[in-house]
Amino acid sequence: MLCDEYKDALTEAAASGAALPSYVREHVNSCAHCQRMFAARQVVFAAVDMRLHTINNVEPPSSFLPALKAKLAAETHPRRPPIHSWAFACAAATLVLAVALIGLRRDQGGQIGAESLSRREKPAAGANALKVDPIQVSKAPDPMGVAKARMQQNLSAASHDPEVLVPREEEEYLESYYSRVRKRDGMNVVLAGQQETRAKALQIEQIEVKELKIESLDEEAELQGTNGR
Amino acid sequence: MQELVLIQPIRAADEKWTQEAAHAARRREFEARLAECGPLAYRVARGVLRNDADAEDVAQEALLRAYRRFDRLRDPLRFRGWLVRIVFRLALDRARSSKRRELRETEWAQPARRGAPPNAEELAASSEFQAHLERALEALPEKLRLVLLLAAMEEHTLEEVAGMLGLPVGTVKSRLFVGRKKLAEKLQCYVTNTKTR
Questions:
Q1: Are residues B39 and B104 in the same domain?
Q2: Residue B112: inside a domain
Q3: pLDDT tens track for B52-89
Q4: Residue where a domain stops, chosen among B98, B131, B165
Q5: Is the pTM of this model over 0.90?
Q6: What tens digit of pLDDT does each residue of A27-73 get?
Q7: Which of B4, B7, B19 to mutate to test the interface with A (most CBs of A within 10 A)?
Q8: Domain of B88?
Q9: Which ipTM did the prediction report?
Q10: Residues B104, B110, B115, B120, Cα dihedral to 10°
């Protein structure tokens, strides 16, 4: 039997470290060449594994993690990737298509409605008692829809925060002010301030009334007349 | 006439505050993983580049990139594998772009013939063998190379490597065997010059 036939089995055994199958062991025991080859393969695999283990388990330098943390600290908040212009174009195209489709359907619906209306106007007079006006049906408000809309209105009214009208240039300042107040738990500060103002009694200084000099209007008019002359 | 805008400052402040809190939480979570995965990233980069400075640079770049994309990671359990792939890809790009590789290829030479075959320890310690092994590793296909690196690293089991790469254990086992076999074939000349009949 040629030694080549055992080559794969020898390589596999050398690579895995497993025992040789009995038929291969018999051959290896009787063949010096295969013995040498098997031993050489075992050495090479062991050397490769040893070296791979050494080069792949190097400790990172001590500065590695601190430097990385410093870089992370300098890093701004992770931002979402910028939306490309083609994404806008796709969105716009989809929107236009959707609007066009809806418009088309409405047109078709109107035509069908008109056709059905004209068909329904034709039947015999006896059928008139049971006829339902399609226009009335279509115009009647959907009770579920109304309820839903009301619920949404109520919800949105409840969840709405106060809205403020400000000059455009002050918008940013006001928002940053609120965020600062929020950060420092400023709502408590504001409330505490309000309580203080309520507790203080109003102090109104006494009004000092100077002595009044009352003159009749006739005398004043006379004075003005003499001055004019 | 002055232009006025209608705003909801409390809601805006709330949103900003929530956003900042979420960023802080995310950063804490990422930093908690750094202690465990930072060295792994360095080792993967070092395994490909075999240069400390380059490895540090690439590992840091990969970790920063991972931090920026941390939002996109749906399953936190896959963080290690995800990071390994980022580092490996970046390290390969760096290795390709550097001209050192060309230099190494020109240095490729046949090993000197030895009298008696050395044992495994002697062979692994020989600088000639080391250089030859590194070149043989570089010549391996990427998928085999990554499996070899990870299997030799941090005493990873086959299951761990399979988990990191999202592959079946059988595939990892087979790739590991093929990779080691290819390396052994290239380095066989160091221990024997016998030929099979």
A1: no
A2: yes
A3: 899 999 999 999 999 888 877 777 778 889 999 999 99
A4: B98
A5: no
A6: 888 888 888 888 888 888 988 898 889 888 888 998 898 888 888 88
A7: B7
A8: 17-98
A9: 0.76
A10: 50
Contact B183, A48 (CB under 8 A): yes
| Sequence ranges of the domains in chain A | 4-55
Number of neighbouring beta carbons within 10 Å of residue A6: 22
Does A174 sit within 8 Å of B9, measured CB to CB?
yes
Vertex B71 angle, CA B66 and B77, to 5° = 75
Residue B56, in any domain of the structure: yes
Residues 4-23 of A with CB under 8 A from B: 4, 7, 11-12, 14-16
Any A CB within 8 A of B25 CB: no
Same domain, yes or no: B59 and B114: no
Kindly report the backbone phi and psi dihedral angles of residue A164, in degrees, each rounded to the nearest multiple of 5, phi listed first.
-130, 140
The answer to whether residue B78 is domain-embedded is: yes
B140: amino acid identity, one letter: L
Sign of CA dihedral A133, A138, A141, A145: positive
Kindly state whether residues B138 and B166 are assigned to the same domain: yes
CATH number, domain of B80, equals 1.10.1740.10
